[in-house]
Amino acid sequence: MTDLSGPLRLAEAAGVLSLATDLAMAQPLEHGLRTAMLAVRLAQAMGLPEDEQATVFYTGLLHFAGCTADSEVDARFFGDEMAARPQMMAAFLGSRLGLMKTGMRVAHADSPPLARAAVMARSAVGGIAEFRKWARGHCDVARLLGARMGLTGPVQNALRHLYERWDGKGMPGELRGDQIPLPVRLMQVAQDADMAWQDGGAAAASEVLAQRAGSGLDPAAVAAFLALGDQVYAGLDAASVWDEVMRAEPGPQPVVGPARLDACLSAVADFADLKSMWTIGHSRGVADLAAQAAAEAGRPAGDEVLLRRAALVHDIGRVTVPFSVWAKPGPLTRGERELVRLHAYHSERVLDAADGLRPLARLAGSHGERCDGSGYHRGSRAADLPPAARLLAAADCYHAMREHRAYRPALSPAAAADELCREGDAGRLAPDAVNAVLAAAGQPRQPMPRPAGLSERECEVLMLLARGMATKQIARQLGISPKTCDHHIQSVYAKAGVSSRAGA
Prior knowledge:
The chain is mainly α. The protein has helices spanning 10-24, 31-45, 50-61, 71-78, 81-92, 96-106, 113-124, 127-149, 153-159, 182-212, 219-227, 242-247, 258-273, 282-296, 301-312, 323-326, 334-352, 358-365, 387-401, 413-425, 431-440, 456-466, 471-478, 482-496, and strands at residues 8-9, 255-256.
């Protein structure tokens, strides 16, 4: 396994979290990046100093950073919160009547009329107070995540007030007008501009902003934005704006050191786990268990570090799945199962955006794979999975078994160990990874029968032989020399009593 490829910028770490917030809010991907770019262009046009431009930049990137907090509140009010969120956010800074109409239209849209009416009647009682608590929760989480990532005090302060409005009718409604931090006011203009621009182009965006100036939006900020004309959107229609946004970060563009990197990845882990009350602390627990299992398995120290970091962010894609799926007490439908299977794909793709996190991406995205090809998202088999991926899969399984879920209570350590061994015996998990995880969890190791008395390394060679790989290819895959690999092949032949690859 390779080390991280070069230094990671703070903007890259925040950018990865921004992409995850887009997924969590069902926004077109890179909405947060485009919001940051538009907000910075507006800040520059208004003559803000460089340090304030940087605050605007990070506020734009992370304006949805608290969106996994209280997902059950969204689900209770709207049913499928993933379907409701983009429409509600597009209407939030518009008229109060328009927001109410939108809420009534999207709430439990797939339910029968009488059921919808009953749910909405229940929601109306205490609904405003509930959403004020919801807004406070979102802002608290955003601020705390920002602090954990090492963002400046002004950015953290801005993240405390993301849902206030110019006219004082925001959430929780504690600030109005110039009391709202300027970076928030500029972000809101940029946010609404991007959503309207994505939907109907520059003319539609200008119309939306003009309508909301003086009510939801700061009129001076709107006027300054509209004065920039259509050129403000230059380059934002590219296939990806990642590189341009990273270049556009104002100021010194800080780099994340090793200690801060772990803090940033832990913040991403907590963002993902907040999606459901059943997964709070799951990613951190898997990371600790996987790292201990790597040590038990005798993996190099560098592999142990990378495995722990990949485990921290392995579940970031779970934010794409509606809360109702995670909360379902019974079996999932095929469509629901596919949503769950895809979350590993989304984890991998989000991490792959940042050069500095790319070595973690495929490993994190492999946590649902199984040695027999029954896993997700690729359906990889044992020979395609490096030792770290097998350890991550086993650690994720064991730790999940020890946690309560909507469809079952938490298993005892012994019951979880028995179940993990059954997965190994069935060929879904690698027996060596199962034993390493059991040792890390303080559970008895299980005997590991291997064919013909082969060693663990010889079994790895045998699996790759069976897939038709040449000696040099096997050596590269396993990180050994061709001469050593040939020695293992001859040993396999001798122990198995065969003299050819086909026989082996």
